[in-house]
């Protein structure tokens, strides 16, 4: 199962991608977590991405495509994956299609949430200060490493949060149109409880895979 979960910042992509990956036995690949971890560790990738991420902008296509291509070539992703945070531009979506040639259908799930709710969620969400993992609902420490939870640097300033939504509308929303007419595209109402959203996503994935099988 190859899946992509897309939606605006604050829609809950990371939380839902983790649940899908665990339930389907495939790795969750979060480009955002990979970048934040690199920034915290001060790696070459982190230094290249730091200023861009903290200003609410998107890291360049070439760098992101290279990161994802290398990750999808690892053995654990050969049986499928759930991508969170990629693709974020049409160029990245086109590159992903090329990467997946001969690897089965791509299920695309869009989580829809309105702007005011997104701003509220972004102001409240936390990540781990050590490993950069997203905190889940009710977490007081990181589930992965036990680290302290802190506000994301790109969520601290209201103007940066607003800029991120503008960037999404300008650069990422077009990929919804890129995928919308595919038989394996599904749209989910994200203004529900996390459990209900997870149920809807599970049903949407099963439906999309069934459709892909019947048309192959």
Protein described:
The chain has a single domain, classed as P-loop containing nucleotide triphosphate hydrolases (Rossmann fold, 3-Layer(aba) Sandwich). It contains 8 helices and 7 strands, in the order βαβαααβαβαββαβα. It has a 5-stranded parallel sheet, sandwiched between helices. Strands 5-6 form a two-stranded antiparallel ribbon. Helix 1 packs across helix 8 and helix 6 crosses helix 7. The relative contact order is 0.19.
Explain briefly what this protein structure is:
By secondary structure, the chain is of the alpha/beta class. The protein contains eight helices and seven strands, in the order βαβαααβαβαββαβα.
- Kindly state the mean pLDDT as a whole number? 84
Through-space gap between termini: 15 Å
Radius of gyration: 16 Å
Strand order of the largest sheet: 2-3-1-4-7
Spell out the helices and strands N to C: EHEHHHEHEHEEHEH
How many beta strands in the DSSP annotation?
7
Structural class designation: alpha/beta
How many separate structural domains? 1
Helix content bin? 40-55%
What global shape is seen?
globular
Task: Report strand %.
Answer: 5-15%
Give the arrangement of secondary structure elements.
Layout: E1 2-6, H1 13-24, E2 28-30, H2 31-41, H3 44-54, H4 61-72, E3 81-84, H5 90-99, E4 106-112, H6 115-124, E5 126-128, E6 149-151, H7 158-179, E7 185-189, H8 194-215
Parallel strand pairs: 1-3, 1-4, 2-3, 4-7
Antiparallel strand pairs: 5-6
Helix pairs in contact: 1-8, 2-3, 4-5, 6-7
